[in-house]
Design goal:
Length: 369
């Protein structure tokens, strides 16, 4: 899998077995693409970022981005499983050797799913430091009480990366202190304090709300140091933004391919509609926007892979790529893709918050919130 052209080609071949009709049927039933996710796992694509010593492919972020871009370019939906690729990054970077040995090989083989990320709560929304879910130390366990919302894929995951308060906000110096990250084994916790309820959304995204009623997590499932969790979560966000941006580039390519093919083939007034500039120009504009966004994604990936600061580029890439991927008739999948890609105006970070980031950290304007 060293050559990205080979990686892209294998992803395309795999996705060809999952055509529009497969996704349309799931979409009608709001069902999870179990077979697709299994095929991607079995082919090793979802373990791209896991080092070889733990059974993964040991590839970099650029390769992971290429995989997700091709999944979306093929009309498939990586949102069903993309988090299996990158959530483990927090464990990889900040977990201890015992935790990595315990979980990473199973995640790499696909036997264990770590694709639920419990951060957002109903009352805190974008303001992560205001989360209220609390993990209280009791002997060898932490006891968790609270609620998460928009916890995607929780019903299709064995483990959850959970962010909870371990010290009350009024007792910490900085509001981002006192938050801790845990690996929660949901197989043990379901029926023992953990309740998961699906939320229906305009796109088929398997998202849920999760309730914690004195859920016990063994203390050795705390990642890194207690109270430093916010920093650990932040360290994975640039990677997440760049990967989602790559998906949006794939969506944009898919829309442009579909639009171009239809404009060539549909004949009205004795000529293809694509011969009219009124039809050509919006498609050409979409293409230019996609290529511009792609350059920014590439720049972000270069900086990330060189170990350099890439916050501004990752944010700009995610914003530009989400804006470049747009799309109505259900039978052509365009309407489904339009709904699916709309999500990325909001998650994992909204466009407003990206603009705030650029204003504050790049343009030096005062923080607005
Ligand atoms: C389908 C879906 C799946 C998701 N999956 C997950 C997941 O798996 N795990 C997880 O933890 N989270 C997930 N999220 C949460 C997502 O990443 C956002 O963080 C979350 O939706 C934001 O909170 P909110 O919707 O309550 O919006 P709010 O925080 O209430 O914001 C509402 C609006 O106000 C704007 N706004 C807020 N503050 C500011 C400000 N300071 N400046 C300018 N504008 C501002 C926002 O941009 C937004 O437009 C998901 C969300 C959705 C919709």
């Amino acid at each position: 899998m060293e050559n990205l052209a080979d990686v892209r080609d294998s992803v395309r071949r795999l996705c060809a077995a999952f055509p529009g009709s497969y996704w349309q049927a799931l979409d009608r039933e709001s069902a999870y693409p179990t077979e697709f996710v299994k095929a991607l796992s079995d082919a090793g694509f979802l373990s791209a970022l896991i080092p070889e010593e733990f059974g993964g492919a040991g590839l970099g972020l650029r390769a992971a981005g290429a995989i997700l871009e091709e999944v979306h370019h093929a009309g498939a939906n990586g949102g069903a499983c993309h988090a299996q690729m990158y959530i483990m990054g927090t464990l990889l970077r900040h977990g201890n050797p015992e935790q990595k040995a315990r979980y990473l090989p199973g995640i790499a083989s696909g036997e264990l799913r770590l694709q639920a990320f419990g951060v957002t709560e109903p009352t805190s929304g974008t303001d992560t430091s205001s989360i209220a879910t609390f993990a209280r130390r009791e002997g060898d366990d932490y006891v968790v009480t609270g609620q998460k919302i928009w916890t995607s894929r929780a019903e299709h995951s064995d483990l959850m990366l959970l962010l909870a308060r371990t010290t009350a906000r009024e007792h910490v110096r900085k509001r981002t202190d006192g938050l801790s990250v845990f690996i929660l084994d949901m197989r043990d916790a379901k029926g023992d304090g953990l309740t998961i309820r699906p939320i229906r959304t305009m796109m088929n995204h398997a998202t849920t709300e999760v309730f914690f009623d004195a859920v016990r997590i063994p203390a050795n499932n705390l990642i890194g140091e207690e109270g430093k969790g916010f920093r650990y979560i932040l360290s994975g966000m640039n990677a997440e933004r760049l990967l989602i941006a790559a998906e949006c580039i794939g969506d944009a390519r898919w829309f442009i391919d579909k639009a171009t093919a239809y404009a060539r083939e549909r004949v009205v007034f004795g000529r293809p509609i694509g011969q009219n500039q009124g039809i050509q120009f919006p498609i050409a504009r979409a293409y230019a926007q996609m290529r511009g966004a792609e350059l920014m994604v590439g720049r972000g990936l270069d900086l990330y892979e060189a170990g350099e600061e890439c916050g501004a580029e990752a944010n700009m890439a995610k914003m530009l790529a989400a804006e470049a991927s747009f799309g109505f008739a259900s039978e052509y999948d365009v309407e489904r893709k339009f709904r699916e890609t709309r999500l990325y105006q909001v998650a994992p970070i909204s466009t407003n918050l990206i603009l705030s980031y650029l204003a504050e950290h790049v343009l030096g304007l005062p923080r607005s919130y």
